[in-house]
What does this fold into?
Amino acid sequence: MNTTQRIALYQARDALRSRWIVLHFLAYLAVTEGMLLTGGASVKAVVGLVNVVLLLVPLVSLVFGVMRLYDARDFVLTLLTQPVRRSALFGGLYLGLAVPLAVTFAAGILVPFLVHGALGGETGVRVAALVGCGVALTLVFTAVAFLVAVRQADRVKGIGLALVTWIGFALAFDAVVLLVVTAFAQYPLERPMLVAVFLNPVDLARVLLLMLLDAAALMGYTGAVFSRFFGSVAGLSVSVAALGLWTLAPWLAARKAFVTRDF
Amino acid sequence: MPRSVFPILSLLASIVCAVPTDACARQVFDLVAAVATAQPGDTVRVPAGVYAWPTVVIDKPLVILGSGRPVLDGGSGDHELLRIESDDVEVRGLAFRGVRRSFVEDRAAIRVKEASGCRIVDNRFDDVFFGIYLARSRRCVVEDNTFVSHSEKETDGGNAVHSWHSTDLEVRNNRMEGFRDGIYLEFTTDALVMGNTSRRNLRYGLHFMFSDRCRYEDNRFESNAAGVAVMYAHEIEMRRNRFAGAWGPSAYGLLLKELKDAVVEDNRFEANSVALLVEGTDRSRFQRNAFDGNGWAVKLMANAGDNRFERNVFRNNTFDVATNSRRAYSRFEGNFWDRYRGYDLDRDGTGDVPFRPVRLFSLLVERNEPALMLLRSVLVDALDVAERFLPVLTPDNLVDEAPLMTEPAVHATRSDPRTPLAQRIERP
It folds into this structure.
């Protein structure tokens, strides 16, 4: 077992001890179970979950990510006095948070569906896509949180910045898109919109899920452009690669900041 | 063939052909000759076999009865197979195949020309251009037939049942698949279209124009490329039909254009891009229909007026009602909306708070389609909620003042007993 894995394991165990990760699991369990009980094990339950996932996953990852790194400050300082590579320490910290978050999220969604026996056929594919997008968003926004926390030494400012980041991705970006669409209504906007989708991982996840869930409404001309793109193997690979890039970029930036930072 | 030779020949053939193979049957029986010798009112029996006759013209009242489903084969497919030019002809129990497409004539397996009282019952049509083409005919019945074609392009397909300038036509319990239009009526008045299943056609499952006072009941229109389109007609009635799987750009479960006094009741609309488009349609009634899982349930254009929507059920639609106007010229009352979040304090079964079915977002999309990319965005949902409390852009009089609290029972479409019911509508 190398240093990164050891640190990650320790962090994960620490997370389990502090119970918030259990709460995280229970929260998704309760929401999913509630959807299944009220809406039945149908596409509707998955559609209802999409909004929850797109809203909550980035928020939770950002806030937990930032707080976790501030809380671990003493631990980090202690380890930095030891012969431990900074990049290994960073990797351990990241995995020690991102993996438990992703696992409890996925379990919280999947367990109720399994209990209701609703993972067959089309619903199964959709739930898988939902969980996949949620896990990807967890990885992306934990990395973003680490970037914020490493660059901002002040704890309160850091949490504030994390919240602003969340509002930016979840709300403000869409507001700007809506403004642009309205302002340039006379122009063909399908392709610029397609590009815009890739600039925000939340939107990318949302559009990917839309294509799987209720593309009916999108089937006009715009929808045709979109579904042709996201429906094709190439388009799907590009979007998955884009989500990967979205994880990698903030992660690399955060690691660089962590490695060069004067603690 | 001279009439005197025919019996001798057929006698010879029957001796040579102890076993009635296809080749022998073709020699034995000649429908053209049989029709020529038959007296009006006779029944002509066609024995089993595959026949390649030239166009058979029936010019006297006869019953053409196939036993063991004889096949009329068009061979190279450059001619029509059967032409009915007399009143009171009945064609029953035959199979037709091999009528190739033509760009100069509407070549049909059976053409009915200026005849009345014909009955075309229990026949099969495989790979034909047009199935049955009725022109200037009256009181004809097309019943229990099966039409299968494999047209590839909308532009070179024919229609299964095509009627032009006819009256009192009855089209009952037929199945049609893979044509351009399943049923096409033009200038056909007082028709009854009932119990048909029209699926996977390249354009419309049902298409009619200038066809007044027609009734459409218990039909199933499923997975047709452009759905069903009905235009320019008065006093039509559509009841208990199922419109499903019209999925794609410019596909409509039911497109109504320039209809007056139409009645649309007890129908089911499932999984269509746009379930019901109402354009230039006035004084029509839409009652007890169920809209389930459509992109848009109802698109109501501003040029439609005085329509009433009552006791319909809206469930799982992305948009319930969309319109392109600030004003509403039609009335919604007492419908069930799954989005309704009101309460019913006086327990009279209707909500105390009116429901506004037009979302702000649907208005934005109507003006500007690329905005659709923001569907299910948290921002858009927040804007919708704000608009619901303080309507600024959505039509302020398009309101259901008495939305139902519980879902009313909607008449179930009669199922087709002959086919295992395709419950799942294929989405491309």
Observations:
- Chain B touches chain A through 32 residues (CB under 8 Å).
- Residues 340 and 355 of chain B are 6 Å apart (CA to CA).
- The first strand of chain B starts at residue 43 and ends at 46.
- Helices of chain B lie at 5-16, 22-28, 31-37, 360-367, 378-389.
